[in-house]
Each structure stands twice: as C-alpha cells, then as structure tokens.
Design a protein that fits this description.
The protein is of the alpha/beta class. Among the domains are: 46-192, Alpha-Beta Horseshoe (Leucine-rich repeat, LRR (right-handed beta-alpha superhelix)), CATH 3.80.10; 419-494, no CATH class. Helix content is 38%, strand content 16%. The protein has 15 helices and 22 strands.
C-alpha cells in the first residue's frame, strides 16, 4: 500500500511538473510576438538610417555583373517589412556594398512603367556617395517628396531621363566635374522647369563658372569664378535653346545665366577690360547692344522682347530688352546701372518706355538703347525731355544692377549732366569745345583744377564729360570734333 501511495505521489508530482513547465511554454510565443510588435513600433528614422548604412545589401539591389567602367550598378531600393512604416527623409546611397564598388544607378527600361533604380515616396533628400560616377536612365524616380539631390565630385554623367516624376524636386547640389549631360536628363519634374536650362547650368559649372541659381533655385558648386570665362559651343547652344523654349508668357531665364553670359561677352566678345575708363566701357557696351538687335516695330508687345535674351540670343527687341541687356553688361563691367520704367511717355504718347541711368563719380547719365539705334550715346535730347517734362511719379526704378539702391527722386534731381557739356550750361556747343581746349592747354594739375572748378566740377568729372568720343582721354581734335558733332546733330538745349 505504501508503495502504491509513493508511486501515485511521484506520478502526481510528475504530472504537476509537466504542467508547471508546459504552462509557461504555451504562453511564451504570445509574449514574444507582443515584444516583437512593440519593438517594430519603436523603430525610428535614425534606426533606419543606421541599418541602411550597416546593412546596405538588405535595401539595395545590385547588378550581378560589372558595368562598362568596371564597377557595379544599383538597380533597386526597398525597405524590409520591419521598416515599412518608418519614414526615411534623407537617403545616402553608398558607393560600396558587400565589397562591390558602386559606380552607377539605373532603373528598368522595359515595360509600360519601368521601375526606377531608387524610388521612395517619403524621401526628401538623396545624397550620392563619392565614387558614384553616373546616373543612367530611370535612376531616380517616383519620389513624391524629393526636394534635393546632392551629387558627388566623382559623378560625371547624367543620362537621358535619369531623374523622372519627382514633382517637388527643386535643387541640385552639384560639383564642377560633370562632363556628359543629356539634353533631357530631367523628366516630369515641373519645379525644375526645362532640362535644357538645367543642362546649361551644369555646363557652366563644368566650364569653371560660379553659378548660384538655376530656374530660381539654389545650386551650390565648388567651381570658382574665372577672370576670363571660356564659353563652349555646347554651352552657347544650351543657353540659346533655353531662350528658344520659353513659353511666351514672360518667362525669364534666371538672373545668374545672364550675369555669367554678360561676363563672358564683356571679356571675350566686346573686349571690356578693368583698365578702361568709364567712357570707354560705356561706348563699347552700348555700341555692341544697339548693333546686336534692331527694334521690332512689328511686335512691340512680344513677351520675349522684354528680356535680355532678346538681345543676347535674338536679333529683335524693344526698349525694355535693350535696357535689360545693357543693365547686365554694365553691372558685370563694374558700372552702376538703373533701369527706369516710365509709365507715361508724354512726348511721344506711346504710353510706356524703358531706359537706363548710369552713375559714375557723382555723375548721372541717361543711356537709352532705343535712341542708340539712331547712333547716339548718352543722348542729351533724352535728358531734356525726361528732366523737364516728366513727373517723378511716372518712374519706376529697378535697382537690380546696382550696389546701392536709389529712388527716382534722387536720380531725377541729379540728372543735369550730358556728355560733352563740360561747362554745365545745358547746351553742347562751341563753348564746350573751347573749355576742353583750355583744360588740355593747362599744363599743371592746379591749373586744370582751376578750369574744372570754374564750372563746378572736379578734374575727374570734367574729363568724364569732356571725353565726348569715349576713347578714355581728352584731346583737342577728337573730343572737340565729337562735341561739334553732338551739337550739330541735335542742336539741343535742356
């Protein structure tokens, strides 16, 4: 009996022991599942970034064979299940994955909707690591939140359609080493506007030019400003195409394009140098502009005519086009230039007119490109009309091309000088010629100061006004002859 009781006791203890062990085992999987779910829910963007960095092969698909430059190509990107609900804002694309050197990114190229190489709707910024050399077709696409792409200095190629369908993409941070850029490397990215303009920007970078904005957005580059920029035929073609493809709704190429192009024109085409006098620079620039484009009387209100491109890249313009082109060229030559829009052109009755006012050494000059097509420079007849008959309220001043903004009232108050009128009596005539001869004949500096002071001028201002032929110096024959020509051509008083 005792033995039976012992066996029963052992059996009960064994059964109890089984249940004691089994009970926790049946609950543990559920507990583990709850812990896993809680862990996934606590994953952060920082965790995702670190995991991509440490385990890139989990996220990026890499081609099994080498590409033409000896590296490998990324052909896909996807987050694993644990991170599907974790937002990634900045994606850094590595240049090494499992020992493979990554040099290119490329998406699919078959089917109606081929998958991009990199696509993520949450990413706002993509950074390509040093070592990546090219974005092939469909490399980046369908990134609905993507705003910026940072390209490494190693990247040299942007292929046709390499960036597609990124609705809010607005900035490229680029290096100066891009060598091969397809004309249409951007597609369906409306904020980047047309790909021709972007290509022109990259060509500028490649040519070593300092460019800061493209289509109104920032581009940061390590390329430095060159003293004598080289403008390649490829870049000229891109700029021309950018202008040709404007939508005729007043769209304007970016300010930076024109600044760089004006710098190129001054240096390589017009021949402006730092050693030239104010008069020499003005004459060269003015002559180039008025001979470059004619006034389009048949299409006065044409949208393209209102931009500098109508002079730089076309052959027909209107007063506003002349003024904008002159503004860019004068600014890059170091001359303060104001663009004046006049809303009541009283004398002619045409209603609107635009012209320039230059400032130099305390002197203000009207320079009118529209009058220039008739062969005049700093035309005193324009000075007469604007100074005496127009209300200041009719003037709208653009300070785009100056270091120090100024009001219409200040300009108008100081518009009392004209080229050739060295005695400042409001006329250009033989008296001015005589004053120039007297000044030249004065041998000492003090004697010259005395002549200039008689007319309320410094010697610098006298020489600026007296250099009527704009050759950078005063001489008895050429300047007095130029003064005579001005007087006989216009016979003006103001």
């Amino acid at each position: 009996m005792k033995q039976i009781t012992k066996r029963m006791t052992r059996t009960v203890a064994a059964v109890a022991a089984v249940f004691a062990v089994a009970a926790p085992m049946t609950v543990q999987p559920a507990a583990q599942m709850i812990t896993t779910v809680a862990s996934a829910a606590s994953l952060t963007s920082a965790d995702l970034v670190n995991d991509i960095k440490n385990n890139p092969s989990t996220y990026f698909t890499v081609s099994p064979t080498k590409n033409s430059d000896g590296g490998y190509t990324i052909t896909g990107f996807a987050k694993p299940a644990a991170y599907q609900n974790v937002k990634l804002t900045t994606l850094t694309v590595p240049s090494q994955i499992d020992g493979k050197r990554i040099t290119r990114i490329q998406g699919g190229n078959s089917g109606k909707y081929p998958a991009p190489g990199i696509s993520d709707n949450d990413v706002t910024s993509i950074v390509l690591s040093e070592g990546i050399r090219g974005l092939n077709t469909n490399a980046i696409g369908n990134c609905g939140s993507l705003k910026t792409i940072t390209l490494p200095t190693s990247l040299t190629t942007l292929s046709y359609g390499c960036v597609k369908n990124c609705a809010v993409l607005e900035r490229f941070y680029a290096s100066g080493n891009l060598l091969n850029i397809s004309a249409n490397f951007i597609d369906l990215c409306p904020k980047m506007k047309d790909a021709w303009s972007e290509r022109a920007a990259y060509l500028m970078i490649r040519d070593g030019m300092d460019i800061m904005t493209v289509c109104g957005r920032k581009i940061v580059t390590d390329a430095g400003r060159t003293q004598k920029p080289v403008m390649s035929y490829e870049l000229l073609g891109a700029l021309q195409s950018s202008y040709d493809q404007l939508d005729m709704k007043g769209a304007e190429l970016t300010d930076t394009y024109y600044r760089i192009y004006a710098r190129y024109l001054n240096s390589q085409v017009i021949g402006v140098t730092d050693s030239m006098s104010f008069n020499e620079k003005v004459k060269r620039i003015y002559s180039y502009v008025v001979n470059r484009a004619s006034y389009d009387t048949a299409d006065v209100m044409g949208d393209k005519h209102y931009w500098a491109g109508s002079v730089f890249f076309d052959t027909k313009t209107v007063c506003h086009g002349y003024s904008m082109a002159l503004g860019y060229l004068f600014r890059e030559a170091g001359i303060d230039c104001y663009v004046v829009d006049e809303t009541d052109y009283v004398t002619s009755g045409s209603g609107l007119h635009t012209f320039n006012v230059l400032y130099y050494n305390g002197l203000y000059f009207i320079v009118d490109g529209t009058c220039g097509i008739k062969g005049s420079l700093m035309n005193p007849t324009e000075l007469k009309r604007f100074h005496n008959t127009e209300a200041i309220s009719n003037w709208k001043i653009s300070n785009t091309f100056v270091q120090y903004p100024i009001s219409a009232a200040t300009i108008k108050q100081n518009l009392r000088y004209a080229l050739g009128d060295v005695n400042c009596d409001g006329q250009v005539n033989s008296k001015d010629g005589a004053a120039v001869k007297e000044y030249i004949a004065a041998l000492s500096a003090s004697a010259k100061r005395s002549v200039a002071a008689r007319y309320g001028l410094t010697t610098a201002r006298f020489e600026t006004l007296g250099d009527a032929n704009c050759d950078g110096k005063l001489d008895t024959y050429y300047d007095t002859q130029a003064i005579y020509n001005l007087s006989s051509a216009y016979g003006f008083k103001y």
